[in-house]
Request: fold
Amino acid sequence: MSLLEHSIIPGWPAPRHVKALQTTRRGGVSAVPYASLNFGDHVGDEPLAVARNRSLLEPLLPGEPVWLKQVHGTVVVDAASTACLPQADACISSRADAVCVVITADCLPVLLCDAQGTAVGAAHVGWRGLCDGVIEQTVRAMNARPGALMAWMGPAIGAQAFEVGEEVRTAFVAKQPGAAVAFSTGAPGKWLADIYQLARLRLNALGVTRIYGGGLCTYTDREKFFSYRRDGATGRMGTFIWLE
Reply:
């Protein structure tokens, strides 16, 4: 079975020359606990296995993706002008064949494109980056009218499993009072956070209303997805977007 058969093609009405791909944990060469398609080179996996996994992408992509050093921040880089491993959590491009990618294992990958297909973006959306504005910074970097953008949300930890402390809820509500609807009561002193809904609220506030995806839970689907919250030592999946 090919890598493409193990992957997910985003279901959104993007222009035909906007290409996107979401990998799962299947189809690679890494051993347990990184089995098997791990793209993370910082999680303890064998470097040769990670390199081999990345090489399996070659038939599917027009060029080498811009692999980011993700730090749960809000920095955005341009895939067309990056010559080294950048410390950033989002990537945009308006040039054909420049491949944006973010890697995740519970955090939310968000893809963006405009209706004309002139710009694309990918954001690594953990709770810290989301709260601090990584989506807003990505939209701003794309230099497109928000109302002309559409978004696709990939697999992330579901609301039934994403338990956070009071400080997380307080941080979100302080910046957007309406964010309170994305939290439900968990264990004493804890909340269950819906990261999909939190991202939708931020996108809507920007004027991005065409939002797709967001229904795949990394925590509960052990066979298909990596989950750091569930397993601790685990791999990272890739979410890719580019202009053809």
Remarks:
- Residues 195-206 form the longest helix (12 residues).
